[in-house]
Amino acid sequence: MHSLSYIGTKELPRNAMKRHKLREIMEVDIRQETNDDGTSPDGIHIFVVNGFRIPLFDMEFKREFGDGASDPSTQVGLSMK
């Protein structure tokens, strides 16, 4: 909980650390992938069935000190779409 609740000013290193910790806890692959429109969620876990890629979860971490003005709920919704 301490690592995952860390508040910092640099988004990319913080998100990489959170993905790493969640990989250890959940024992699944969590990665950052770019969508067709150039956006990317902070983390995603994909399940493949008969060649179809199905996102089991999509993460967008809450905005913190020094980040842009994007809304995480909007970002994750667009990634799922």
Describe the structure.
It is a single chain. Strand 1 (43-49) and strand 2 form a beta hairpin. The protein has one domain (11-80). It has a two-stranded antiparallel sheet. The chain has helices spanning 11-26, 72-80, and strands at 43-49, 52-59. The chain is of the alpha+beta class. The radius of gyration is 13 Å and the shape is globular. Helices cover 31% and strands 19% of the residues. It has 2 helices and 2 strands, in the order H-E-E-H.
Précis, in short:
The protein is an alpha+beta fold and 81 residues long. Helix content is 31%, strand content 19%.
Topology overview:
Elements: H1 11-26, E1 43-49, E2 52-59, H2 72-80
Antiparallel strand pairs: 1-2
Secondary structure: number of strands: 2
Q: What number is the mean pLDDT?
A: 76
Helix content: 25-40%
Could you give the order of the helices and strands? HEEH
**Fraction of residues in β-strands:** 15-25%
Specify Rg, calculated over alpha carbons: 13 Å
pLDDT under 50 segments (min length 5)?
none
The secondary structure category is alpha+beta
Number of helices: 2
- What is the spatial order of strands in the main beta sheet? 1-2
Number of domains: 1
